[in-house]
Amino acid sequence: MTAKMKRREFITLLGGAASSWALAARAQKAAGKFPRIGLLQPTPNEITAAFIEGLRDAGYVDGQSAVIEARYYETPDRLPQLANELVALKCDVIFAASPYAIQAAIEATSTVPIIGGDLESDPVANGWARSLAYPGGNLTGVFLDLPELGGKQIEFLKEAVPGLSHLAVLWDSRIALVQFRATQAAARVAGLALQSLPIESSEDFKDAFDRAARERVDGMIVLSSPIVMRQRSQIAALALGARLPMISLFTLLPRYGVLMAYGPNLSNMNKRAGSYYVDRILKGAKAGELPIERPTKFDLVVNLKTAKALGLDVPWFLQQRADEVIE
């Protein structure tokens, strides 16, 4: 088959799919049965776009074949109100992206299916699910819950920063205690002194970096938190200003100037929440019978421009291991 024929066939297939979605949408609209999908997460970002893309891949387009009710928050105190709004709107399913959003959704309803997107929590230990294989309630989704990632991040940071001996750990004290303890243990095994820098809000970042400078740390690990994702530009600027080599599990951060990242592909995680979990539930599956997934692939991202600004020569073998190198 020629490339031209393949292209024509692809266009025909795409047109047929679009026609099918359009017919389904008209039928649903006529019957007044557009599925209503709730979205509860911090301020809109690339993760939001990935979830919406996943919905579109499954045929759910806002205003055409579905209604998306998005509720965003900047501080967790508004979450109970927002979660109750989504329940009152009779959403068929709610995607809750963050530990705070999941907890608020669980407290708001025991019947509406909830899809969680969470990097910090163990859903079983938190009492949200009976097991990963069979959650049993009205919650399923994609959870990271791999505190041992801190050890791998220390390994990569040591390779990039010769003579690393004093490590700072920036962490959200409200949700990242398990991560912090695992990272603390990994630092001890690696023979590094560790400086704990707990934060609770975005207002704490400046003081944390000032303290890191006073303590003369050689590098920093930033543990996951919705606050970190939301304030990524500020964190990158503070790290560059302090000439501090940093690694995070948010693979987006090096694009803002952070030296390195090692973690899951968040866009893929959230895209799957839409394309797989929402679709399965809207087609009749029960949330409690859909296994909770954990990411299995992790990406290493290195920003060579930042390395140069910090006076670091990232070893060639580390660049070769990287999934993405920013130059």
Please state the overall shape, judged from the principal axes of the Cα atoms. elongated
Separation of the first and last Cα atoms:
39 Å
State the CATH class of the largest domain.
Alpha Beta
Question: Can you tell me the CATH architecture of the largest domain?
Answer: 3-Layer(aba) Sandwich
Report the radius of gyration as a whole number of Å: 22 Å
List low-pLDDT spans.
Answer: 1-31
Strand content: 15-25%
Spatial ordering of strands, largest sheet: 7-6-8-9-10-11-12
Please identify the oligomeric state.
single chain
Name given to the CATH homologous superfamily of the largest domain: Response regulator
Q: Provide the domain count.
A: 2
The profile of the biggest β sheet is:
7 strands, mixed
Helix content percent band: 40-55%
What average pLDDT do the residues reach? 89
Number of DSSP helices?
12
Concise description?
With 327 residues, the protein is of the alpha/beta class.
